[in-house]
Design goal:
Length: about 200
Amino acid sequence: MTDTPLQPARTALLTIDLQNDFLHPDGAYGRAGQGAEAIKALPTRIAPLVSALRAKGGTYVSAQFTLVPGPGGEPLISPHLKTLRPFLTRGDFAPGRFGHQLVDTLAPADYTVEKVAYSAFYQTRLEYILRALKIDTLIVGGIVTNGGVASTVRDAHLRDIRTVLLSDGCAAFKTDVHAATLTSLGSVTQIVTCADALAMIGAAE
């Protein structure tokens, strides 16, 4: 994929689902004993890129998985997710709650997008924000590589939005799944390490 120099004012760092309910010990996944060390390491690894891009006039957008409270406060969960994650319950990933919030290491974002499915573009305001700010390049990280990250990268590709995917700035619950997904995405995105992305930002004018 292209290695065209970044234009910071036209670039946003987009993180997917780096929220307390996924990463914090008191969050929904932490309480259920679900997690991976590779996932826990992401916020600290990505934070320097947020600072560097902002210093050059770029933007940080956080896309956050959301379970909309339904009747009686029970979350509106798609059937496949209910089967996959039966521990999700009332209050998990609900807007305004601790678990729904971006992790402290990265907070606050310049813009927050609530998403109800894998892709950060599906039925959200993300594309509107990008077009309004004249952003045509996304540096993407977050979780999980084979879910929200992959779906978002592919949807960006369909919209002719350039993406730079952080190979060590995203993760999955299984390393082999993470690696296989990076291989499959190589035809639609530029893939670099966080260190390489930091150098790209540093070299940008």
